[in-house]
Design brief:
six-stranded mixed β-sheet, about 40% helix, binds iron/sulfur cluster
Length: about 240
């Protein structure tokens, strides 16, 4: 596709509302754009929106095999409520086995390098494989989640992957409060851990609840001092 057409599309989408962006993404790429979800509050909003828009768009998630029970329960509930097919991506079994044999199942507590290795095997590698088959992906990231995300745009070129695809962040300008207002208004099922002080939910051993006033993503890899609270999926 010609670059000028892509740039026009990106520019056009910047002024659109979240639902309109979803609609335009599907119109532009059809089956070549999909939604990546990890079943946080933002993700269930996107799922509810596409269901109301009746867009037949692909949805995928990565099961790192280390998720919380609450997250697995929510996946089941969402699939039943919306009658959706959600593609579950898994890490490569032999890569996981090799890593765990060499460094232990909880290697991430030992060093930042180990944590990045685990996220690389369990999350980044399956995502990379999936994105190689797409021209665009849609995420639930919001700009106030952490410093790294503050410059994200509603739609942008994502040059972090081999095939330079387009990344849509329809909720980028939404606040956490707006997300929960939507969930409450539309009675959307959400992860029960949000009620227990988890604004951001990742893998079970790497996420804890936060206290009032703490940074939004400070419960992620909470043992790391001044650590980066990204796992490599959303890089700027
Ligand atoms: S969040 Fe923790 S368990 Fe999950 S992939 Fe990253 S390091 Fe591994």
């Amino acid at each position: 596709m010609k670059n000028d057409k892509i740039y026009q599309h990106i520019k056009y989408c910047q002024s659109l509302k979240a639902e309109e962006i979803l609609h335009e993404a599907f119109k532009f790429f059809n089956k070549n754009v999909e939604i990546a979800v990890s079943f946080g509050a933002e993700d269930v909003v996107l799922i509810d929106m596409v269901s109301k828009l009746k867009i037949d768009i692909g949805i995928f998630t990565i099961d790192t095999k280390r998720l919380n029970k609450e997250t697995y329960d929510l996946i089941k509930e969402i699939k039943q409520k919306y009658n959706l097919k959600i593609e579950i991506l898994s890490p490569n079994e032999s890569s996981v086995r090799k890593m765990v044999d060499a460094k232990g199942v909880n290697l991430f507590y030992d060093s930042v390098e180990n944590r990045k290795e685990c996220c690389g095997v369990r999350k980044v590698a399956p995502l990379k494989k999936k994105l190689n088959s797409l021209s665009g992906w849609i995420t639930g990231v919001r700009s106030d989640q952490n410093q790294n995300r503050s410059e994200f745009k509603k739609v942008e070129l994502d040059e972090n992957w081999e095939n330079n695809l387009i990344k849509y962040n329809p909720l980028v300008n939404w606040s956490y409060e707006q997300v929960f207002n939507y969930i409450s208004k539309h009675k959307v099922p959400y992860n029960k851990l949000h009620d227990e002080g988890y604004p951001s939910i990742g893998c079970e051993p790497c996420t804890r609840a936060i206290k009032k006033g703490e940074d939004f993503r400070s419960g992620r890899w909470f043992w790391e001092k001044n650590g980066n609270t990204e796992c490599g999926l959303h890089i700027k």
